[in-house]
Design brief:
Rossmann fold, Histone, subunit A, 13 helices, 310 residues, alpha/beta
Amino acid sequence: MRSVLLLIGPTAVGKSAIAVEVAERVGAEIISADARAIFRGLEIGTDRPPPQILSRVPHHLIGALNPAERYDAAAFRADCERLVAEIHARGRRTIVVGGSTLYVRALTRGLFPGPAADPHLREELAHRSLAALREELAQVDPPSAARIHPADRVRLIRALEVVRLTGRPLSSSWGEEQPFPFPLVKIGIALDRGELHRRIEARVSRMLAAGLIEEARRLWERGIPPNAPAARTIGYRELFAYFRGELDLGEAERKIVRNTKTYARRQLAFFRAEADVHWLDGTGRTAAEVAEEAIAHWRAAEASLESIPC
């Protein structure tokens, strides 16, 4: 069976450019594992590939949904399985690229057959403090409360949702996850911390210069619900606070940079805990150089799986 390249790493590390280089060399299509890039109207804030790139290399799950719509890891997993089968049927390769940890986990660790999301319950839980969420989860599902990061609101809410909808703790389903039906070759991209921070700072400046404030204001004026993905996305949530008069523009920009660095640190910690990831250092190297090494590893890994070479 033909394998899938899973390209992961923290935000601003250069995954998208590397994925495009690999795709053009091996005849691949790209599936985005970015939980925000799937929404229309967030082009600048999610650093979406420009139209000229999208016209050169087919990309999937980018700009497909209205920003007020709901989309989760289970929907991503189902879409990913369907897309990989369709891409392979066309005789092409598949690259999944992104940094959304829940989406990556849906592929690498599988999903258990849990209940679908309940929007009304999630809205109720979204208004509670992190401390209150942690306290309730510790009472009804201590193993999940111990495993989930205390600041990870998304996973805390999901764990409570499972308990309330099924009467069973999420932890009771550990080990029932369904594996991804295609072999994954996992490659992580990392940078020297100083270089990563410089890239984050430069990217935020570039986004603001490209019109991020105007893009965020268009979403704001549409009345996006406060619990919608766009309203909770770094870059937009800080600017929404600016529009409400809670921050001045300089403080909003500083918070975007600071929150992006914090997010990148959490992503890297998550990905470092993933098994069988082959890490490549992109510090001081071009996307083309890293792509060449990624292709070599993909070919070698796939040969070891006794699959079809790239």
